[in-house]
Amino acid sequence: MNLNIPHKDFINIVSGISNQSSEQEINVIYYDTRIINAINNSVFFALKGRRNGHDFVQKAYDKGVRCFVVNQQVALPQDAIIINVEDPLRALQEVAKYHRDQFSYPVIAITGSLGKTTIKEWLYFLLEGEYNIIRSPKSFNSQIGVALSLLEMTNEHNLAIIEADISHPNEMKYIEAMVSPTLGVYTGVGHYYADNFESQKAHATEHLKLFKYANITFGLEAYKSELRRNKINAEIINPEEWSEIDFSHLSYPSNRIIALHMAAFLGVDKSILLKKVHLLPTLSNRLEVFEGIDNNLIINDSYNIDIDALEQALSYQFSSDERKDKIVVLDLSFIDENKQQEILNIVNSYRPKELFILKENHVPKELMEVKNSSILFKGSYRSRLKETVLLFKNRKHETWVEFDLKSIEHNIRTFQSKLPETTKTLVMVKASSYGTGDNNLPHFLQQIDIDYLGVAYTDEGSTLRENQITLPILVMNTEINAFNDLIRFNLEPSIVSFDQLNALCERLEQDNITGYPIHITVETGMNRLGFYLEDIEALIEKLKVQPQVKVKSVYSHLADADNPNADYTQQQINRFKQIKGKFQVALGKEILFHILNSEGTSRFSKEAAFDMVRLGIGIFGYTSTAKEDELLPTIKWKTTISQVKTIKSGETVGYSRNFKAEQSMKIATLRIGYADGFRRSLSNGVGSVFINGTECLVIGNVCMDMIMVDVTDVICEAGDEVEIIGPNIDMQLFAERLNTIPYEVMTSINKRVSRIYLR
Ligand SMILES: *Cc1c(COP(=O)(O)O)cnc(C)c1O
Predict the structure, then answer these.
(1) Any ligand 1 atom below 6 A from CB of 255
(2) What separation in angstroms does the CA of 246 have from each of 126, 220, 479?
(3) Residue nearest to ligand 1 atom 6, measured at CA
């Protein structure tokens, strides 16, 4: 970002009142202290998101920022320039609008409820070479995201592609004012219109406000009436124009047609488009994060190296405390010299501990010796950096699970949107975060401002602390012999009995500790752990005279939250309310009360959210009402083919010769077995996998490390990817085949299966 706005003008643009004048210019805007790197001539906007930006002004100051846009009293040293405005978000948008208005090249805006990012990326791919394009990074499409995208426009570009989304009525006018689109692309509003709109029509109308003044807006036939009803100057895209393309094997044909049509409209030759349509990249242009060799954390973004994606990757790497030492590896082949310099400037502004620039795919010895660091790999689509990244893979075993962190965040926000604003969110990360791995998810949760983490046992909490997790951690089961670690790592125990309470207090007294945070587990119907209603008075009396401990929360757990008949849950909630009353009267108001797990939050958030909820399975999208709640699936489990062979009629397959071929057939051996969690009960047709879009049944018995499947009707070869769990075989189906529930499937995927986290 390079804005060059003189201070005086800046104050006018944001309609602010400044405590002092300045001769400086404003060049860079920040709103998140974690990603502050270039400090000269920067300004910090105190925005109110999940957290109040005003709470972070001191941190921004400490990092070197000297100019602040606020609308609350803040205490900062004398040399801080403080600009008071009515609303910092609107002020940011005014700056974006001002900046956008400096440029006369076309701005294409994309909105609708689906497919925006895909279309934007594909359009970029089709137009690259013809235009110098600035586009929204990833799916930066919110009120803030659109502003930041516009602020990246420069004189060197000659086309902007901006995506925009809204979730509430009356939001689009602010985006429209900022973007002033020249051309529009409308992707439609699907069946699932956003909660905050009374109808699909109302949702569409809000979206279409973006195009009120656009020259032409493009859309498919299906949205013709919406466009007309909202008086949008529209061009309806005719798929027939692309009839020479066989879309039947291609994903998202409508998105392809929209991107092709736009590119043709903008002057790209049809012959080029016909070739490029088959090359449109699958959108794995997401950061891949995984544990690498030598305790390195690998951040793989070798899909493209354009500037905005680079900034995103760097800001993620440098804002995360998953590893202290930050290493950057660049492959700059196929990139022109000017751009190389720009890339280097940006990378150097983050001051990585080491920067490697690879030439001709040569991997320096020093790079292979890096340990305990986070290593970001950035190269263009055409470079061979991908092969280098493989050298850093921890496990070469070609079976892996992918966790989609963005969808996990979506699911958490979906739950939170059902809750009162003051209700906190605890995420249960017991059993290595439901089998997703020890640290990656907790770090992600820490970054997205979750309030609390919960674990089952002290050891799990210790591991988190040893890996720089600083959030408060509730421990459900605390063994007496774990008190040492508990105290050393500042973990917060759940107290379930008088004996345990006495032992803890005794221990704390020895160490002269007072006010140690504890949580009280109460029984309301699970009959697992905790104090019963009739014990509560004695417990309270005891707590009153134990200065060693301080009750932070009182909680209970639902036994039957997914039962459509809510009687039992209601009874538990009522009992909990009684207990809550007793605590409040006796111990004051500071205590947090909580009873809801994921299923509970989905169904009882109105009457029982209290002060906190404890989410688990729901963040992965696997509750009984996931579809209605619009939760997204988050897990894909994949393996690869190690060999394909043909067997004759009468031959048998595998141990105990449990499968006999009735005719000649083609079979594939896959790199997964019961030791990975693909259980033996899936043998012989109970289980199946998907290969290149076709279902293939398991034949013979599942082996420890391998399975065989029938691929007679599938075009496939060794090395091809295989879906174990994914869009075709969802978690629910996989669990049903094993007669179990998603929880058990998730936690039974063996440690030897590598875990990849998509950002
Ligand atoms: C595991 C657990 C949760 C989370 O449950 P989900 O069903 O996964 O949402 C919440 N509270 C307690 C006490 C738990 O043990």
Answers:
(1) no
(2) 18, 18, 64
(3) 616
Strands (DSSP E) contained in 399-472 are 400-404, 424-428, 452-457
Instruction: Give the C-alpha separation, 470 to 443, whole Å.
Output: 9
What angle do helix axes 567-587 and 598-608 make, rounded to 10 degrees?
Answer: 60
476 CB near ligand 1 (under 6 Å): yes
Using the structure block, give the residue that is written with the tokens 């800046």. Answer: 10
pTM: 0.72
Q: Is 600 in the pocket of ligand 1 (CB under 6 A)?
A: no
How does pLDDT run across 549-577, given as a tens digit for each residue? 999 999 999 999 999 999 999 999 999 99
Contact 74, 87 (CB under 8 A): no
* Location of structure tokens 């174990």: 724
3-state secondary structure (DSSP) of residue 746: helix
Q: Which of 592, 608, 626 is nearest to 558 (CA)?
A: 608
**How far is Cα 221 from Cα 206, in angstroms, rounded to an integer?**
19
Q: Is the Cβ atom of 557 under 6 angstroms away from ligand 1? A: yes
* Gap from CA of 646 to ligand 1 centroid (Å): 48
Q: How far is the CA of 614 from the centre of ligand 1 (A)?
A: 6
For residue range 576-610, what is the model confidence (pLDDT) as tens digits?
999 999 999 998 778 999 999 999 999 999 999 99
Going by the DSSP 8-state scheme, the letter that residue 681 receives in this structure is G
Q: Which tokens in the block code for residue 233?
A: 């100057």
The amino acid sitting at 595 is I
Q: What digits encode the pLDDT tens for the residues 220-236?
A: 998 999 999 999 999 99
| Beta carbon of 616 within 6 Å of any ligand 1 atom | yes
Q: Evaluate: CB of 598 within 6 angstroms of ligand 1.
A: yes
